[in-house]
Design brief:
By secondary structure, this protein is mainly alpha-helical. The protein is built from 7 helices and 2 strands. The chain binds zinc ion (ZN). Zinc ion binds next to helix 5.
Length: 145
């Protein structure tokens, strides 16, 4: 399983939490367009790697390590969305879609520059909170797992 798949799974679980949608395998299947057997296989790997665990209701929970990874990916994605929309003038829908890829490739240095250039924003154009900004301002490279 690629690191990109790993990052996608923990990021989706964090987004489901934000939306107050129970994080279960079926929701991940919907959002990744993957089959349930494939999702279950990937979930087992993430459990083995200590990034998630199942609670007593079979809901997926992020471990502290999984949460740190998810926050970094989502912060990068949302800063990129703002950059694409506000700085480059992409239509919001397009910026929203394209930012998903940026969540996997931005560096902390680039994030710092985007954050400063955009006058330290707190939310995306669609009003979603940019998580983990305290870690970014602190300047330390967040753990990537
Ligand atoms: Zn958006």
């Amino acid at each position: 399983m690629s690191s990109r798949v790993t990052e996608t799974y923990v990021r989706i679980i964090l987004e489901l939490e934000e939306e107050r949608v129970p994080p279960i395998r079926a929701r991940i299947g919907e959002r990744t367009l993957a089959s349930l057997p494939s999702v279950s296989q990937n979930i087992s790997r993430l459990e083995r790697d200590g990034l998630i665990h199942n609670d007593e209701n079979r809901r997926l929970r992020l471990t502290p390590r999984g949460r740190r990874m998810a926050v970094v990916v989502l912060r990068r994605q949302r800063l990129a969305e703002l950059m694409l929309a506000s700085l480059l003038g992409l239509p919001h829908d397009q910026a929203h879609l394209e930012s998903v890829e940026w969540g996997h490739v931005l560096t902390t240095a680039a994030e710092h520059h985007i954050y400063q250039r955009l006058s330290r924003p707190g939310h995306t154009p669609c009003g979603l909170r940019i998580p983990g900004l305290g870690d970014l301002v602190g300047g330390a490279e967040p753990p990537r797992g």
